[in-house]
Give the backbone structure.
Amino acid sequence: MTTESTVEVHHLLEGPEDAPVLVLSNSLGTTLAMWDAQVPALRERFHLLRYDHRGHGGSHVPPGPYSIDDLGRDVLALLDRLGVNRFCFCGLSIGGMVGIWLAGEAPERVERLVLCCTLARFAPDTFDSRARKVRANGVDAIVDAVVNRWFTPSFPEGCPEVAEWAWRMLRETPAEGYAGCCEAVRDADLTRIIHQRS
């Protein structure tokens, strides 16, 4: 479901104000803290903007389903409130889908685009099943399966504090927000934008 309303998303803006703006958009089930390790290096060269998708972290959790249009308009509304006209954008997974949407809907504003571990269209059944499972049983029902895809089998043993941090971040994601974003991924087909831009 696409709505015309936007959510005032939780965000952090740091780094030199005269530097180029770089927006970091995180993956499903994570918060802006996902980028903590990269921030010290990036904020030396960029006016760094991190935010939580609707339904995640410190952002409002409206009833789902959401759409990629909703998530993209949330970002544009945030940038407008901050007075940012042009920006670079780096998105991971669902964040990458938001980046593709921005490149299609506001190409004059996107200076550079980095898309990580994302697609223009994911397999809908995967995300439909995940949304239904989370709505029925909460985020705990999918935590192990999801986090085990984020790391190699040996990583949690070698870096237990990082693995625990990731498990906790996902567990703390509101079920409605997670399911709503799953539904946004399920319904998104951005192939038209990719073909227009190529």
Remarks:
- The radius of gyration is 16 Å.
- The chain is about 45% helix and 15% strand.
- The beta strands are 11-14, 21-25, 47-51, 87-92, 110-116.
